[in-house]
Write a structure and sequence with these properties.
The chain has 324 residues and is of the alpha/beta class. The protein has one domain: TIM Barrel, CATH 3.20.20.70. 43% of the residues lie in helices and 16% in strands. It contains 12 helices and 13 strands. The termini are far apart. The model has no long low-confidence stretch (mean pLDDT 91). The structure holds flavin mononucleotide. Flavin mononucleotide binds next to strand 6.
Length: 324
């Protein structure tokens, strides 16, 4: 029988299927259900800075007294942190798989002060969900990268647990970004977050949103970048966006991912789909005579390829010629 145990950021996981940060992991009971269904680890629902800020605004009642505002701000922040540290502490008590806390923040100062509490509560690692909307025409690419780097450096100083950084797919250079995050202190990078799907309703003439859920077709982008970065950066890589089946998990491992994060597939098929995916992974390994994940991780990465240039192809020259 194939051994599907893996390590991720120095943590031991019974298998490489990690439940992504989402409402699937937002209560200790749900975390327990993830473990029972066969998760290798969980990333807790993110603590959103914006959410706490909104609660602060709602509760301020329009008061303009700065001291009162400061007091409300402190109370709300404490309440948000207390609820989140309780989620970590109680989840940690209920399961034996790694519990990774997640913070989504848009400004650095706010959360630097709070991350130590997550480690104290028992989080095994911290996933920094850094999603910066680069809408400002005056922000150059280097300034944007520096925001990510400085954030990781600041958090690195305050916690000793491993840190991963979850990013989106759009950077001037993803390999350089992953390297910079590693030098700043990240042990792993999660490729990629799936952002709010911006869309337009042509009947209502209004903005709307597309499906928050991915399909296997979305796997192509993480697959390409994981295969190109694996073995060339110190960072361990976690795949996210489009892992829907055991075969998808095999693909990201072959590309070089340490783990496969799963989200949409579990909303679609239920948590028991983790068991199906694990069986598919094990039977593929048996069929291919692999007894451990390390034997095939990164086998189809660019670094190990005899034709590395094939990984850099951008255009469909032949297909287009054929259709002309
Ligand atoms: C309903 C829902 C809630 C999510 N909440 C979070 C979150 O709190 N933090 C986060 O980092 N990602 C969040 N995500 C993104 C997922 O963790 C994941 O990165 C994304 O869905 C892509 O993976 P998938 O293709 O397996 O769905 C959420 C996704 C969904 C669908």
């Amino acid at each position: 029988m194939a051994d599907v145990t893996v390590t991720y950021m120095g943590l031991s996981l019974p298998n490489p299927l990690v439940v992504s940060s989402s409402s699937l992991t937002q209560t200790p009971e749900k975390v327990q259900q993830c473990e029972a269904a066969g998760a290798g680890a969980v990333v807790l629902k993110s603590l959103f800075e914006e959410q706490i800020e909104a609660e602060i605004d709602a509760d301020s009642g329009g008061t303009e007294h700065t001291e009162a505002m400061d007091y409300i701000r402190q109370m709300q922040t404490d309440a948000g942190m207390t609820a989140y540290t309780r989620l970590i502490r109680e989840s940690r008590k209920l399961v034996s798989i790694p519990v990774i806390a997640s913070i989504n923040a848009v400004s650095r100062d706010w959360w630097e002060d709070h991350v130590a509490a997550l480690e104290d509560a028992g989080a095994d690692a911290l996933e920094l969900n850094i999603s910066l909307m680069p809408h400002d025409y005056t922000n150059r690419d280097e300034q944007i990268l520096q925001f990510y780097v400085k954030t990781v450096e600041a958090v690195r100083k305050r916690v000793s647990i491993p840190i991963s950084v979850k990013i989106g797919p759009q950077f001037t250079s993803l390999p350089a970004t992953v390297d910079a995050l590693t030098w700043a202190g990240a042990s792993a990078v999660v490729l990629f977050n799936r952002f709010y799907q911006f869309d337009i309703d042509v009947e209502k003439l209004s903005l709307t949103s597309g499906s928050p859920f991915s399909t296997s077709a979305d796997l192509s982008v993480p697959l390409r970048w994981i295969s190109m970065i694996h073995g060339r950066s110190k960072a361990e890589l976690a795949a996210s966006s489009g892992v829907h089946s055991g075969a998808d998990a095999v693909k990201v491992l072959l590309a070089g991912a340490q783990v496969a994060q799963v989200c949409s597939a579990l909303y679609r098929h239920g948590l028991e789909h983790l068991g199906v995916m694990r069986k598919e992974l094990e039977s593929w390994m048996d069929r291919k005579s692999f007894t451990a994940v390390n034997q095939f991780r990164g086998k189809l990465s660019q670094k190990k390829s005899d034709t590395p240039v094939a990984f850099e192809r951008l255009q469909y020259i032949k297909a287009l010629v054929g259709r002309e």
